[in-house]
Specification:
The complex is a heterodimer.
Chain A (H helix, E strand, L loop, with lengths): L1 H24 L17 H7 L2 H33 L5 H13 L2 H12 L5 H8 L14 H26 L3 H9 L4 H12 L1 H17 L2 H6 L11 H11 L3 H32 L1
Helix pairs in contact in A: 1-13, 2-13, 3-4, 3-7, 3-10, 4-7, 7-10, 8-9, 12-13
Chain B lengths: L1 H31 L18 H9 L2 H32 L5 H13 L6 H10 L6 H5 L6 H12 L3 H9 L4 H12 L1 H17 L2 H6 L8 H11 L5 H21 L1 H13 L1
The chains are: A mainly alpha, B mainly alpha.
C-alpha cells in the first residue's frame, strides 16, 4: 500500500488538487495585503463572458488546432512514405525531418525568429530574390498566427512521422502483393490497403497533437508575446500573461477552469467518436 | 525504364523537400559559425569561425545552466522510474477495491498536464516556499501518468507463472519486482528514459514561471533570457547559444539515431 501512497499523493497534489482549487478560487476575487480576498460569486465568470480579448483568443486557438493538426498529420504520412521507400537518400531525409523534434521549442522559436526577421532573415531574402517586398511575418496581424502555426508544424511533423513509420513497417507485405497482383496502382494500394491500417496511429497521433496544441505555447512567449494586437495569442499563453504578468490570480484561475472544461469536453467527444468507430469494426 | 525514371524523380523531390525542411536549421548553423557581418549576406567563401560560441559562453553563465538542467533531469528521471514502477507494480500484482477508478484518476494527468495548471501549482509552490528552487521545478513532474501507463502495460505481459515460481522459491514482493518484473521491462525503461530526458531538457514554461535567479535556471530559460535581455544582440551570438544549448541532444541523436527512432516507436505503439 505504501507503494501507492507517496506517488499518488504527489499526483493528487499537482493535478487534482490544483484543478479543484482553481474552481474554488474562480469564485473569489483577488486579495491584497490590506484587503483579504472575498467571495465574489460569478463575477469572474461575468468578466469572462464580456472579455473581447478572450473571444479573439478562443478563435485563434481553434484556427491553430484545426490548421496545425491535419497539416502535421498529412506531412507526417508523406514523410513516412518517403523515408520508408527504398529510395536513395532516405537516411538524410529522416535526419532532416526528425531534427526539429529533438530541438527544444525555445530553440525552434529562436531559429524561426531569425528566419522570419525582416530584412536579415532568410524568408525575406528569398522574397527579395523573387523581386517581392519583404514581409514582417511576425509583425502583421494577418500573418502572425499563420507563421506561428508553421513553426508548430515544423516541430511536430517529424515526431508523428516516427509513429507512422512504425505503423508502415508493420503492414503485411502479402496484402500489398495481393493488391499488386490484382493490378491496383500504387495510389490505390496506398489508399485502400495501407490507409485503413494506419487509422489507429492516426487516432493516437491526433489525440497527442490536440493536447500539444493546448499545452505548448513556448514559441508564442518568445516570438510574438501574443501580438500584434492579440492576433497570435493562444489560451494557455493568455493564462500565463493574465496570471504572471498582470498578477490577476483570480482571473487566471477562472481561465484555468475554462481550459480544463474545454479539454474534458474534447476528451468526451473523442471517447464518443472512438467508441462509435469500434462498433462498426 | 519508366519505373527507374520515376524513382529518380521521386527521390530528387524527396531530397529537395528534406533540404527545404532543414533550411531554417542550416541557416542558423551557418550564421552561428560565421562573423556577424555575414549573417545578412550569404557568401560561400566566408571564413568559418568558432568565435561566436566562445563569446556566447562567456557572456552568460551557461555552465551553470547546464549543471541545473542536468540536476533537474536526474531528479525527475530517478523519481519517475522509482515511483512509476511502484504504482504500476501495485496495479498489476494486487487486486484491491476501487483499482479501476484509481487508475482512471491517475490517467487524468495525461489529459490535464501540469502545464495547464500553472496558476494553482505556482500558488501551492509559493505556499510551501519552494519557488525558485530546482526541486520546485521538478515537483509536479515526479510522478508521470504516462510512465505508469507504459509500465503497467509492460508488467501485464509478464507471465504469471514466472511470478509464482519466484514466490515458491521464497521470494517476497520486493524481490519478485526486482528480479522478475524489472529485468523483463528493460527496453521500456530505456525508451521511457529517453522520452523523459528530452521532455525535461526542453521544458520551458513551468521553469520560466518558477525560477527567478540564475542559480537555478535550466538551459531553456537561460537561453531565452540571453536572447531577450539585449534585444539588440547579434544574431550570430543568439544562434550560437541556441545551438550550444541543444548540441548534447543533437549529438546524442546523431550517434544513437537508430536506437532513438526504435525506442520512440516502441514508446509510441504502447
Amino acid at each position: 500500500m505504501i507503494m501507492l501512497v507517496i506517488p499518488c499523493s504527489l499526483l493528487v497534489a499537482f493535478t487534482h488538487y490544483p484543478a479543484v482549487q482553481a474552481l474554488i478560487n474562480s469564485f473569489w476575487n483577488n486579495g491584497s495585503s490590506r484587503r483579504p480576498s472575498r467571495f465574489s460569486g460569478f463575477e469572474n465568470y461575468q468578466a469572462l463572458m464580456e472579455d473581447d480579448r478572450l473571444a479573439q483568443i478562443l478563435i485563434n486557438s481553434t484556427i491553430y488546432a484545426l490548421g496545425t493538426i491535419p497539416l502535421a498529420i498529412g506531412l507526417a504520412i508523406g514523410m513516412a512514405l518517403l523515408v520508408n521507400s527504398r529510395l536513395p537518400g532516405t537516411t538524410l531525409m529522416r535526419l532532416s525531418f526528425f531534427m526539429p523534434t529533438m530541438l527544444p521549442m525555445i530553440a525552434v522559436a529562436n531559429i524561426w525568429l531569425f528566419f522570419y526577421a525582416p530584412g536579415i532573415g532568410l524568408a525575406s531574402q528569398i522574397l527579395e530574390v523573387f523581386g517581392m517586398q519583404s514581409i514582417n511575418f511576425l509583425g502583421r496581424t494577418d500573418t502572425a498566427l499563420a507563421s506561428m502555426m508553421f513553426v508548430a508544424v515544423w516541430k511536430e511533423a517529424g515526431l508523428f512521422m516516427i509513429f507512422y513509420l512504425a505503423a508502415l513497417q508493420s503492414v503485411p507485405t502479402n496484402l500489398k502483393d495481393a493488391a499488386k497482383l490484382e493490378g491496383a496502382s500504387a495510389f490505390r494500394i496506398f489508399w485502400d490497403v495501407v490507409m485503413p491500417l494506419l487509422r489507429p496511429t492516426t487516432i493516437f497521433v491526433a489525440v497527442n497533437a490536440l493536447i500539444n496544441a493546448f499545452r505548448l505555447v513556448d514559441h508564442v512567449i518568445v516570438m510574438t508575446e501574443g501580438g500584434p494586437n492579440n492576433s497570435s495569442a493562444l489560451l494557455l499563453y493568455y493564462i500565463y500573461e493574465v496570471t504572471f504578468r498582470q498578477r490577476d490570480f483570480a482571473y487566471g484561475a477562472t481561465l484555468t477552469v475554462l481550459m480544463v472544461c474545454l479539454l474534458g469536453l474534447l476528451a468526451i467527444v473523442q471517447y464518443w467518436v472512438l467508441n462509435r468507430k469500434a462498433h462498426y469494426q | 525504364m519508366n519505373r527507374g525514371l520515376n524513382r529518380i524523380l521521386l527521390s530528387t523531390m524527396g531530397v529537395v523537400f528534406a533540404a527545404l525542411w532543414a533550411l531554417p536549421f542550416i541557416y542558423s548553423v551557418w550564421t552561428a559559425f560565421h562573423d556577424e557581418r555575414y549573417s545578412a549576406n550569404f557568401q560561400l567563401g566566408a571564413p568559418w569561425t568558432f568565435e561566436n560560441f566562445v563569446e556566447a559562453w562567456r557572456s552568460a553563465p551557461f555552465s551553470l545552466y547546464f549543471a541545473n538542467t542536468m540536476i533537474l533531469i536526474t531528479i525527475v528521471l530517478v523519481a519517475n522510474l522509482i515511483l512509476c514502477t511502484l504504482v504500476a507494480y501495485a496495479f498489476v500484482r494486487y487486486k484491491f477495491r476501487w483499482a479501476g477508478f484509481l487508475f482512471a484518476l491517475i490517467m487524468v494527468q495525461l489529459l490535464i498536464s501540469p502545464e495547464i495548471l500553472i496558476v494553482e501549482n505556482y500558488l501551492t509552490l509559493s505556499r510551501v516556499g519552494l519557488t525558485d528552487t530546482i526541486i520546485g521545478i521538478a515537483l509536479p513532474y515526479l510522478t508521470s501518468a504516462f510512465g505508469i501507463f507504459l509500465l503497467r502495460q509492460t508488467f501485464m505481459t509478464v507471465p504469471k507463472s514466472l511470478d509464482e515460481a519466484a514466490q515458491i522459491e521464497g521470494a517476497g514482493a520486493w524481490r519478485v519486482l526486482w528480479n522478475v518484473y524489472v529485468p523483463l521491462a528493460w527496453p521500456v525503461y530505456l525508451a521511457y528514459s529517453l522520452v523523459s530526458i528530452s521532455f525535461h531538457w526542453n521544458n520551458f514554461l513551468w521553469p520560466l514561471i518558477v525560477t527567478n535567479s540564475p542559480e537555478v535556471r535550466p538551459l531553456t530559460v537561460g537561453l531565452s533570457v540571453f536572447a531577450t535581455v539585449d534585444s539588440g544582440v547579434e544574431w550570430s551570438l543568439v544562434n550560437a547559444a541556441t545551438l550550444m544549448t541543444t548540441a548534447p541532444l543533437i549529438i546524442a541523436f546523431i550517434i544513437f539515431q537508430r536506437q532513438f527512432v526504435a525506442n520512440f516507436m516502441r514508446a509510441g505503439i504502447k
